[in-house]
Amino acid sequence: MTRSTPETRLGVARDADGALYIPAQQVTGLLRGLVGQFQDWGQDDEQPVLDQATLHLVTGALLDAADQIDVECISRTPTQQSDQEGEQP
């Protein structure tokens, strides 16, 4: 039985220089998950770690970052039309 590396199990890749690359979908999912967790802070009569104004700024920044990653990925995704335009007759 072959044991898989943590990178393989997590869906990340490592280049020759050792840098890790994580799928954008996992990154945006993590960012949006953090927002969900942060929005629950203080809901159960707990003392919130951040005041509401700061919490709103942090969650907004995380959502903006996730949205920007999505936009960048979409803009780099080839479309069927652009694939056909690149073909040589």
Task: Give me a quick take on this structure.
The chain is extended, with a radius of gyration of 19 Å. 58% of the residues lie in helices and 4% in strands.
Question: Can you describe this structure?
Answer:
With 89 residues, the protein is mainly alpha-helical. The chain has helices spanning 6-10, 24-39, 52-76, 80-85, and strands at residues 13-14, 20-21. A two-stranded antiparallel ribbon has the order 1-2. Strand 1 and strand 2 form a beta hairpin. The chain starts with 5 loop residues before the first helix and ends with a helix. The model has no long low-confidence stretch (mean pLDDT 82).
Key attributes of the depicted protein:
89 residues, mainly alpha, 4 helices, 58% helix
What's the SSE blueprint?
Elements: H1 6-10, E1 13-14, E2 20-21, H2 24-39, H3 52-76, H4 80-85
Antiparallel strand pairs: 1-2
**Beta fraction of the residues?**
under 5%
* Cα shape: extended
Walk across the major sheet and give the strand order: 1-2
Portion of residues within helices: 55-70%
Mean pLDDT: 82
Helical stretch tally:
4
SSE string: HEEHHH
- Structural class call reads mainly alpha
The end-to-end span amounts to: 49 Å
Radius of gyration over all CA atoms, rounded: 19 Å
